[in-house]
Specification:
The chain starts with 18 loop residues before the first strand and ends with a helix. By secondary structure, it is an alpha+beta fold. The chain contains 20 helices and 16 strands. A hairpin with a 5-residue loop joins β8 (476-480) and β9 (486-491). The protein has helices at residues 110-117, 132-140, 152-169, 174-180, 189-193, 201-212, 223-236, 240-247, 251-260, 272-286, 300-307, 312-327, 335-348, 358-362, 371-382, 393-405, 552-555, 558-573, 581-597, 648-654, and strands at residues 19-22, 27-31, 50-54, 56-57, 68-77, 85-94, 441-444, 476-480, 486-491, 496-502, 508-511, 522-527, 533-539, 542-544, 617-620, 640-641. A 5-stranded antiparallel sheet has the order 11-10-9-8-16, covered by helices on one side. Strands 1-2-3 form a 3-stranded antiparallel sheet, with no helix packed on it. A 3-stranded mixed sheet has the order 4-6-5, with no helix packed on it. The model is unreliable at 1-120 and 407-658 (pLDDT under 50). Among the domains are: 19-106, no CATH class; 124-212, no CATH class; 441-654, no CATH class. The longest helix has 18 residues, at 152-169. The structure holds a DNA duplex.
Length: 658
DNA sequence: ACCAAAGGTAAGGGTAATTCTCTTGT
DNA sequence: TACAAGAGAATTACCCTTACCTTTGG
C-alpha cells in the first residue's frame, strides 16, 4: 500500500456532514459536500469530493484487548499541481492510558516498538509451537489460535508486515531474506511479520516460503515432467527437495504430484468391484459396518493401499462424495435442498464462512453426502454469484437467499443492486453487487478534438438519483491508437478495447469489445463546466461512476446516453480481438500470482502526461491497491498509468467462471 | 555434553478449481 | 442423429497441520 512516503500526519476536519462508505477491499471512501473546492481546479476542473481512505485495523481480531480506538488520517499528495490526493486512514486501537499516536506510515522501528508495547504480539504468533498440546494450552488460556485457509485480511496484514520490515531495513526483495540470509541475519524476521496474526510462527513461515518460492505456482505438469518425475522418483525415492530441484518445482509440489500417480492407478469411472472393495476396506479399517456414516478418521493412504487400483485422493473423493451416501441410504439432492442450505447457513448467524460447522450442518440430512460434500455444494451455490469473492459473507448470504428463493425465471439474470437499464440483455451471470463508490476523477483538459458521439439510438435508463453501483476495474491504461481521440483501453490482462475520447463540451469515453462479446465495456463520462463529473462503466448491467453528481439522472441527458450507446455499436463492428482465451487465462493467472508476490507495485497515482494525451481528457484514478503490470507487447511509454481499478465481476468473467 | 529454540522435512488430510463425461433437451 | 447445455464425477494443483528431525547457540 502507498503508506510509505507520507510526509506528515494531518488531522481530518469534518466538513459539515461526511459520509463513509467502504469498498470491497476494505477501503473507506469519504464523501463530503462540495463546498470547499471552489478554487481548486486550476485547469478548470473540479476536484472530486471523495477521498479514499484505507482503514488499517491493526488489531481487529482482538477487540476486547483494547479500550479505545483512534483514527488518524494521512493525506498523500500525488503530484505537484494536482489537487487530488489520497487519504490514508489508519485505525489504531489504543489501550488504557496510551495516547501516543502510532501512525502506521511513520515507522521508525515499528516492529520492535510494537513488541515493546505488547501490541499485536500474541503468544500464539511469537512461538514456533508444533504440537497439539501447545495449541490446546494456549487456547485454554484464552489465546486466539487461527488456522485453516488464510483470509484476504490476514494475507494483507502479512504483506504489510513484510513490506514494513523491508522498508525499515532497506531491503528490496523479501526473497533475499527468506532464501539468502542466514538464520542469524534474519533473526527477527518471522517474529516481526507474524505480528497481529493469531497463527503460530511455523504457519507464517510456511506461508511465506510458499509465497516467495518461485518454483511454486508453476502450474500443470506436462507429460514430459511427469515422465521425468517418475524417473527421479525411482532414483531419489522420497527426497522431495532433490527431485523438486531437478524438476524446477518446489519439494511439496513434486511430493503432492507423486501422491497422485500410482503405477497401479486406474482413471475414469469406478467399476463395481472397485467400489465394493473401497467400501469393504473403509469399513474394515474404521471398524464400521455397511450403512454407517463414515466421514472422518479414515487413513486414506491405507485405504488406497488396500484398494490397490486407486490413489488416496480418488478413494477419499469417491467415498465422501458418493459411495458412503449411497450405502447409507441417502436421498437425492433437490432444489429445495439448495434453498435449505442457504437458509440454514443464514440461521447460523455467523459473520464468517469459516465459522460454519459443516459436521453439525450436515447432521440428519439424508441428501447430504458428507460434510465435505456439503461444503462443496455451498461452493457451487456461491459461485453462481460472479463476484462472490468480493462480497462480505453476510451480503453474499443475503443475496443468495434472494437468488435461491427467486422463481426459476428470475435466476440466471443479472442480479444487481442498484442496477440500471430497462433493456439490458439478460446475462447468464448472476452478479450480486453491493453499492461501492470509488474515487474516479476526470480532469478536463482543453481539447482540440471536436465532440463525437452525437446521434440517437436506444435508451439507457438509469436509476434516478440514488447511489449507483460501483465496481472497480482491473488496472488499465489508455494507449493511443494513432487515430486522434481514440485510445485503447488496456487492462492488465492483455485486453485492448477501443476507446474514443472527446472532450467538448462533455467528455465521453466509450469502449466496447466485439458486439457479441459479453465483455463489452462502455466507459462513459460526462462532465460539464466544473460541475458534476461522472464516469460510467457499463459491464452487462453494471454501472461505474462517481457519485459527485447528486442529480445524476438530470445531468445525464437522455440524448447523451443514447449517443453513447450508438457509439458503442458503431465501434463494436470494427473491433479487434486479441489473443486466444487460453493464452489470456495463462497470462491472467500469472498476473494474479505476480500480484501476490510483488510488493513494490507501481504507484497508481503517477502523473499523467504527454504520451498522446495532450488533448482530450485525463482520467485519473487514485487507488492504493495492487497494480497489475501491463503486457510486454505494449510500449510503456505509450501507456498512461491511470491507476488501479479492479472489477470483481470483470475478473470473474475473465477467469472464465460461469 | 546438554538443552531449548529455531528451522526444516515428510506425510497426509484437505480445499478450490478445472476438466472430463454423461444426461437431457431441442 | 446431431448438437448444445448443464450437471455431476473425476482430477489435480495447491494449501495446511502434524509429527518428527536437524541445526544452532548458549
Amino acid at each position: 500500500m502507498n503508506t510509505g512516503d507520507v510526509p506528515a500526519t494531518v488531522t481530518l476536519e469534518s466538513v459539515n456532514s461526511v459520509t463513509f462508505t467502504q469498498d470491497t477491499d476494505g477501503n473507506i471512501i469519504l464523501h463530503c459536500p462540495q463546498n470547499d473546492g471552489e478554487d481548486l481546479g486550476s485547469d478548470g476542473t473540479t476536484e472530486p469530493v471523495h477521498k479514499r481512505l484505507r482503514l488499517s485495523d491493526e488489531d481487529g481480531e482482538d477487540p476486547q484487548d483494547s479500550t479505545s480506538t483512534e483514527y488518524s488520517v494521512v493525506t498523500l499528495p500525488i503530484t505537484e499541481g494536482d489537487e487530488s490526493f489520497e487519504v490514508t486512514m489508519t485505525a489504531t486501537e489504543m489501550r488504557d492510558g496510551e495516547l501516543e499516536s502510532d501512525d502506521l506510515s511513520e515507522t521508525t522501528d515499528r516492529d520492535s516498538s510494537a513488541q515493546k508495547k505488547g501490541k499485536d504480539v500474541s503468544a500464539v504468533s511469537q512461538a514456533w509451537f508444533t504440537t497439539k498440546e501447545d495449541k490446546d494450552t494456549l487456547v485454554n488460556k484464552g489465546h486466539k489460535w487461527k488456522q485453516g485457509m488464510w483470509s484476504k485480511e490476514e494475507i494483507d496484514l502479512l504483506m504489510n508486515n513484510i513490506e514494513r520490515y523491508l522498508k525499515n531495513r532497506g531491503i528490496r526483495d523479501p526473497a533475499e531474506i527468506i532464501f539468502e540470509m542466514s538464520k542469524e541475519e534474519r533473526k527477527d524476521f518471522y517474529r516481526s511479520i507474524a505480528c497481529g496474526l493469531n497463527r503460530p510462527l511455523f504457519a507464517v513461515y510456511r506461508r511465506v516460503l510458499r509465497m516467495y518460492d518461485n518454483r511454486n505456482h508453476v502450474g500443470k505438469y506436462t507429460d514430459e515432467e511427469i515422465n521425468k518425475l517418475k524417473e527421479l522418483r525411482q532414483k531419489h525415492g522420497n527426497d522431495w527437495a532433490t527431485i523438486g530441484a531437478a524438476l524446477g518445482r518446489s519439494a511439496s509440489s513434486v511430493k503432492d504430484r507423486c501422491r497422485l500417480m500410482k503405477d497401479t492407478c486406474n482413471t475414469g469411472k469406478w467399476t463395481e468391484e472397485e467400489e465394493r472393495r473401497l467400501a469393504e476396506v473403509v469399513h474394515e479399517l474404521t471398524g464400521t459396518e455397511v450403512g454407517d456414516v463414515v466421514t472422518q478418521g479414515v487413513s486414506w493412504a491405507s485405504v488406497a493401499e488396500l484398494v490397490g487400483t486407486r490413489s488416496e485422493k480418488q478413494c477419499r473423493s469417491k467415498w465422501l462424495n458418493y459411495l458412503n451416501w449411497k450405502q447409507s441410504g441417502g436421498t437425492e439432492w433437490t432444489k429445495e435442498d439448495d434453498i435449505n442450505l442457504v437458509r440454514r447457513i443464514a440461521e447460523l448467524d455467523v459473520d464468517d464462512e469459516n465459522e460454519i460447522n459443516w459436521d453439525i450442518l450436515s447432521g440428519g440430512w439424508s441428501s447430504v453426502r458428507s460434510p465435505q460434500w456439503l461444503r462443496s455444494k455451498w461452493w457451487t451455490i456461491k459461485r453462481q454469484v460472479a463476484n462472490h469473492k468480493e462480497l462480505p459473507f453476510p451480503v453474499l448470504l443475503k443475496g443468495l437467499q434472494d437468488v435461491v428463493e427467486a422463481p426459476p425465471s428470475a435466476i440466471n439474470k443479472v442480479v444487481v443492486v442498484g442496477s440500471r437499464s430497462a433493456n439490458a440483455s439478460p446475462s447468464p451471470v448472476t452478479a450480486l453487487q453491493i453499492p461501492v463508490q470509488i474515487p474516479v476523477q476526470i480532469t478536463h483538459v482543453s481539447s482540440s478534438d471536436g465532440a463525437s458521439g452525437t446521434s440517437d439510438s436506444e435508451t439507457i435508463t438509469l436509476n434516478s438519483g440514488a447511489l449507483q453501483t460501483f465496481e472497480l476495474l482491473p488496472s488499465f491504461h489508455l494507449q493511443p491508437t494513432g487515430t486522434p481521440g481514440t485510445y485503447f483501453l488496456q487492462t492488465g490482462t492483455n485486453q485492448s478495447l477501443p476507446l474514443t475520447l472527446s472532450a467538448n463540451p462533455t467528455v465521453t469515453l466509450t469502449a466496447a469489445a466485439s458486439p457479441s462479446s459479453p465483455d463489452q465495456i462502455i466507459l462513459h463520462s460526462l462532465t460539464t463546466d466544473n460541475e458534476n463529473v461522472t464516469v460510467q462503466m457499463s459491464h452487462p448491467g453494471i454501472i461505474i461512476q462517481t457519485v459527485t453528481s447528486e442529480d445524476l439522472s438530470d445531468s445525464l441527458g437522455q440524448s447523451e446516453l443514447e449517443a453513447e450507446q450508438e457509439l458503442v455499436k458503431e465501434e463494436s463492428s470494427e473491433n479487434q480481438n486479441n489473443s486466444g482465451e487460453d493464452e489470456q487465462n495463462e497470462e491472467r493467472s500469472k498476473d494474479i500470482h505476480e500480484g501476490e508476490k510483488t510488493l513494490d507495485s507501481p504507484k497508481a497515482e503517477e502523473t499523467v502526461e504527454s504520451s498522446g494525451m495532450g488533448e482530450g481528457a485525463v482520467l485519473m484514478v487514485p487507488s492504493p491497491s495492487s497494480f497489475i503490470p501491463t503486457n510486454e507487447d505494449i510500449s510503456t511509454d505509450s501507456v498512461l498509468p491511470l491507476g488501479t481499478l479492479t472489477d470483481p465481476i470483470l475478473q470473474n468473467q475473465e477467469e472464465g467462471s460461469d
